[in-house]
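Appendix B, example 12.
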Amino acid sequence: MRKGIFSLFFILISLSLSASSILIPMDADSQKNHLKAYGITYWVLAKQQKVQWLLNYRGGSFLLPDGESIRKECQIRGVSFEVVSDNQANAILDEISSPSKNQDAVILEKAPKIAVYSPQGNQPWDDAVTMVLTYAEIPYVTIYDEEVLSDKLALYDWLHLHHEDFTGQYGKFYGAYRATPWYIDGKKEAEKLAKKLGYDKVSEQKGAVAQKIRNYVIGGGFMFAMCSATDSFDIALAADGVDICEPMFDGDASDPNYQASLDFRKTFAFTDFTLERNPMKYEFSSIDMTTKRGNVPRESDYFSLMDFSAKWDVVPTMLCQNHTSLVKGFMGQTTAFNRPQIKPTVLVLGENKLNGEARYIHGIKGKGFFTFYGGHDPEDYQHRVGDPKTELELHPTSPGYRLILNNVLFPAARKKKQKT
């Protein structure tokens, strides 16, 4: 009897000593595929297992439950990992919890349902978010105006706005591309869809879509936008009920002095901006800094991520996790944001100090959150219409693409109230 008790005791001790976790390091030296590491984390969450995101610890590492299937999946996807004992894991967590460390551990609880707002058919450009979701093997659903206007957004936790124009001016491509087949066909398809959905103009339909997305965020949704979807969204909100489109876009004249009719109280991020009236100019407003970057040479075009308190400002810290604080810049129709026209309630997460511009911003609207990221493709400096897509197999450690994936995991986190 006594021998049996001692045997059971030693078995339990052995099991305790062998218990372990999987650490996915995210620093520059240890991780060979940062982007697919997010996919592994999402995959574990999708299996109803919790993950700890170790903020500011080795580049924002992930602590996963151990299991043979997880180890094999990391090996298959080429993700670097380390097996650590429970004692080692607890020591890491104790170190992170120290008041002297600007670190924190955030529990990720569920895999968010992801929607990408994007039209059907091939566009003459690619979308960084859909490319990195596909590369990281994170599933998503593509939706567009019909789904948004029929209140399908409530089915999703996270929404990405594809390279889009919510003002009804067809991306301001008129000056350079009005005679190209893709522009002509796209305009016809947009007008056809607007009529089908009961709108006289594409601008009216896009405005209604912007309002639905606005309500989705206010109700608790997470919205992420890049390039022209950032400023054109806010312009559409400010111009609610105001015709800002010239005849080549909607068949009639714009409202006289429409600039004075804009209501900046309705926008998410930007205020006091001036619209670009010239239909031949590839620009929406004074929000964008693309044409004001004469003193930013390509070789020194970088933006720095802001340093937040991990224990006090958990949300912005999550969104800035990276293996470097300096990220290579990249262009887009909307490259960066004019800082004086960003509302004071909006956080700047990344900035180019050389040009006084914000590249990466975040805010709260109602119960939800939004993040705007300037530029089109983090690994294609000046992506042009018709250029081939970026092959992410060549950029598995891209810091610029990591910022997108930080936002993808953001809704999975057990939220702590922000202190500042």
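The longest strand covers residues 357-365. The chain has two domains: 18-108, 114-412.
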